[in-house]
User: Which sequence fits this backbone?
């Protein structure tokens, strides 16, 4: 149950009136106190019928609406008697900006929110919002919010070990702003720590900042391959992976001959690619089940803040291979590819390279 101050503000009464009302509900057995400074818990009567909820699905970008697990989740919620709907704005549309997200959410009629791949600031706002919210992926660690997502931390460590074993020393992580600002997320930190554990010095070269637009992403790729080309790219989502693979191929930089490419998420299109795409694969069914359990608990008035990690499978694929012995290709000022004069070892040039 919301606390005294929130109820008083919402109903325009003083705190004493709100407290008296809560105490009366507690005396009737509809609320249970949980100790000083803690909110009361709602106790529903016997035979109570769970509510049908309007559940808003706020995704990271438009392609996420077509993901198999999102479609299945919508069907399963409908089958359970709820009314799921995709928010007509995405987090990308809203610039992952807390104030814009807050304005949009408050004017959207929903009883509960499922928020996919959100930044920590956005999820922190949902923690404090009066309507219940569920973090589907995103930077949810240590926040008091129900959540589910694959265990990218351990998988990321295994990935870096595999790349190092293949001779890679110039490894770059390409991830969107929400996962690198204000600091790298847990999985990205784990990958950087694993590089350090193998004697590789890390810095802005390994997780560069870039303008979160298509143009900014392609400028970043040009800069990366102009001076000290990476030998491996770890890319955090299929949309960016395909964009990077296409951009590099136009300049004659192919995987795995000149660079190894790895995606940290699965995508149905990967099965149609040749060479096959190296990626992390996770089963979406446990993810969907966890969200359904949470919505069911919300409908019953239960406070559910459980966070669950699901298993990940490492799919090596054909876009990862050993470091090429010959000079690496680079993208020049004219946009054409040429031979790089840099050596294959990680020297001071890697650490000192200026990033966009």
Assistant:
């Amino acid at each position: 149950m919301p606390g005294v101050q929130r109820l008083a503000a919402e109903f325009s009464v003083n705190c004493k009136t709100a407290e008296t009302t809560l105490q009366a509900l507690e005396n009737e057995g509809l609320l249970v106190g949980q100790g000083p400074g803690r909110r009361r818990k709602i106790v529903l009567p016997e035979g109570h019928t769970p509510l049908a909820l309007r559940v808003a699905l706020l995704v990271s970008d438009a392609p996420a609406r077509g993901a198999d697990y999102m479609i299945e989740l919508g069907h399963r919620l409908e089958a359970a008697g709820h009314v799921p709907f995709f928010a007509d704005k995405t987090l990308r549309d809203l610039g992952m900006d807390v104030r814009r997200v807050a304005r949009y959410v408050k004017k959207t009629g929903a009883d509960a929110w499922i928020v996919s791949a959100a930044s920590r600031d956005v999820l922190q706002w949902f923690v404090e919002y009066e309507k219940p919210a569920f973090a589907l992926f995103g930077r949810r660690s240590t926040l008091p919010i129900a959540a589910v997502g694959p265990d990218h931390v351990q998988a990321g460590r295994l990935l870096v070990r595999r790349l190092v074993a293949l001779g890679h020393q110039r490894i770059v992580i390409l991830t969107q702003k929400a996962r690198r600002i204000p600091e790298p997320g847990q999985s990205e930190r784990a990958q950087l720590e694993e590089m350090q554990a193998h004697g590789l010095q890390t810095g802005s070269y390994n997780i560069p900042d870039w303008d979160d637009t298509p143009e900014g992403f392609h400028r970043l790729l040009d800069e990366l391959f102009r001076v000290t080309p990476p030998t491996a790219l770890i890319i955090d989502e299929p949309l960016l992976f395909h964009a990077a693979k296409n951009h590099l191929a136009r300049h004659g930089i192919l995987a795995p001959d000149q660079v190894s490419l790895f995606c940290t998420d699965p995508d149905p299109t990967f099965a149609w690619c040749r060479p096959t795409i190296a990626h992390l694969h996770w089963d979406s069914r446990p993810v969907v089940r966890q969200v359904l359990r949470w919505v069911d608990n919300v409908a019953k008035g239960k406070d559910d803040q459980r966070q669950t990690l699901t298993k990940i499978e490492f799919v090596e694929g054909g876009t990862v291979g050993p470091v090429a012995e010959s000079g690496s290709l680079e993208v020049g000022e004219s946009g054409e590819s040429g031979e790089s004069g840099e050596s294959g070892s990680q020297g001071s040039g890697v650490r000192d390279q200026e990033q966009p």
